[in-house]
Design brief:
The complex is a heterodimer of chains A (222) and B (209).
Chain A: H1 2-18, H2 20-40, H3 44-67, H4 69-76, H5 79-84, H6 90-119, H7 126-151, H8 159-166, H9 171-186, H10 191-220
Chain B: E1 2-12, E2 15-26, E3 30-34, H1 41-49, E4 56-62, E5 74-77, H2 89-100, H3 105-118, H4 134-147, E6 152-156, H5 164-179, E7 183-187, E8 198-201
Classes of the chains: A mainly alpha (222), B alpha/beta (209).
């Protein structure tokens, strides 16, 4: 167990030292959202109506950018092979790497979202639920994304392939994330059913993601 | 303990790299794998480590360790060193020590210090690994052997980019490992200077001489 904490601490330290992946994701998120009002024109009602959807979709795309690096760097420098022989289950290693991705990408993106909501004239009542749904939904992005990252490990320019593999898996998260927000804006209590399903998707991916990613990595390392 | 391989056949890309290969290595013994490029030295080491599944035959441990995965008892030193450029020399090794080894914080710190000292990396402790030369990186990769005790060492071209002094140092460390009852398999083009080592020659045709 302490080995896995060590790995998490190392991954977080690397993310802080290198900084590039997190910065790119946040910058991409900011730019996409900032460009939308320029393209759609200054219709505040329209922007307000589509803001939750835009914020969610742009968040998915921004998170995708950094997915390919989840295993790639450790594979290139040989660390992944050493981890595979460490005696720690590879599933646990995958889970820790996905968790590190969530902590360094999912959470910062979710926390940036309300700021970007200002640009889109997001309904004032929606800020709290927006962050809540994003914090509940982003684990699924990292853990399902780990499957795509593992499958495309040895593919040259695998970034686009990851998008094709993983984006369909994000559909339930997207649907229930936005359903929870729009429900909360109409009837506050209607927020819970969608939010619970969103949590269930994240919890399910927490279990299934590492198993599938580890299986893919074993094949990739042959 | 003993590492046994029997009637081993491994395929890469539909072609048998070697077939009918068998050997036994016991505690305190080293086996040098030699042969031209493409003879299957790396393939054999990766098969023993468990990355590749043999088509035929089996690899097992004897001596009370039959139910353990070979890979979990092995250090695999491949072509890559497992080093992060942005971490310092000490941080790199301390991570592997804590991840692979057992013991508390001070035990890890002691082992890291000893290993760095042994591989002449003490002066570079706080330097980010990005600034190391190829040979220094290799030594840092090899220092992993000393921070987590494991009986089986699988060394794939361990002397690449090492100077003569470091090669002799590595040979001495491998000899100590053997004297302490360890096993070592090394794929190499340069004789490691191990007097006791046996040689397993793989040939390019897939046969074993």
């Amino acid at each position: 167990m302490s080995s896995l904490w060590t790995l998490l601490a190392r991954d977080l330290r690397l993310a802080m030292r290198e900084g590039g992946a997190v910065g790119t994701a946040l910058g991409f998120y900011l730019l996409v959202v900032a460009m939308l009002p320029l393209g759609l024109g200054p219709d505040l009602n329209l922007l307000s109506r589509i803001a939750p959807g835009i914020l969610w979709i742009a968040l998915l795309l921004a998170a995708l950018l950094s997915l390919s690096r989840m295993f790639e760097i450790d594979h290139e420098d040989g660390s992944l092979e050493i981890m595979a022989l460490s005696g720690q289950p590879l599933e646990a290693v995958c889970a820790v790497k996905a968790l590190a991705h969530w902590l360094t990408t999912g959470i910062p993106l979710a926390l940036l979202a309300p700021l970007l909501g200002i640009l889109l004239n997001l309904d004032i009542a929606a800020y709290g639920v927006l962050v809540a749904t994003m914090l509940a939904g982003t684990p699924a992005i990292s853990f399902l994304g780990s499957i795509g990252a593992a499958l495309t490990l040895r593919t040259r320019r695998g970034g686009l392939l990851i998008a094709l593999l993983v984006l369909p898996l994000y559909v339930p998260t997207l649907i229930y994330g936005i359903a929870a927000i729009s429900a909360a804006l109409m009837v506050p209590t209607a927020f819970w059913p969608s939010f619970m399903i969103l949590l269930a998707i994240s919890l399910g991916s927490l279990v299934l993601g590492p198993i599938a990613a580890a299986a893919a990595l074993r094949i990739q390392m042959q | 303990m003993q590492l046994l391989a029997e009637n081993l056949c491994v395929e890469r890309g539909g072609r048998a790299v070697f077939a009918g290969l068998g050997f036994a290595v016991a505690s305190g013994e080293a086996l040098l794998l030699t042969g031209p490029n493409g003879a299957g030295k790396t393939t054999l080491l990766r098969t023993i480590a468990g990355f590749l599944r043999p088509r035929d035959g089996e690899i097992r441990l004897s001596g009370g360790l039959e139910d353990r995965e070979v890979g979990e008892l092995a250090h695999y030193i491949g072509h890559a060193n497992g080093i992060k450029a942005t971490l310092s020399v000490t941080e790199n090794l301390a991570f592997w020590s804590a991840f692979l080894g057992e013991g508390d914080r001070s035990a890890h710190a002691d082992r890291v210090e000893t290993a760095l000292d042994r591989f002449n990396l003490s002066d570079l402790e706080d330097i980010p690994a990005a600034y190391l030369s190829a040979g220094q990186k290799r030594r840092l990769g090899l220092a992993r052997l000393m921070v987590a005790p494991r009986p089986l060492w699988l060394l794939d071209e361990p002397t690449v980019s090492l100077d003569a002094g470091s090669t002799a140092l590595l040979a001495a460390i491998v000899a100590e490992h053997l004297a302490a009852g360890g096993l070592a398999l090394a794929a190499t083009h340069i004789p490691l200077g191990l007097d006791t080592a046996r040689e397993l020659r793989l040939s390019a045709e897939g046969a074993v001489a």
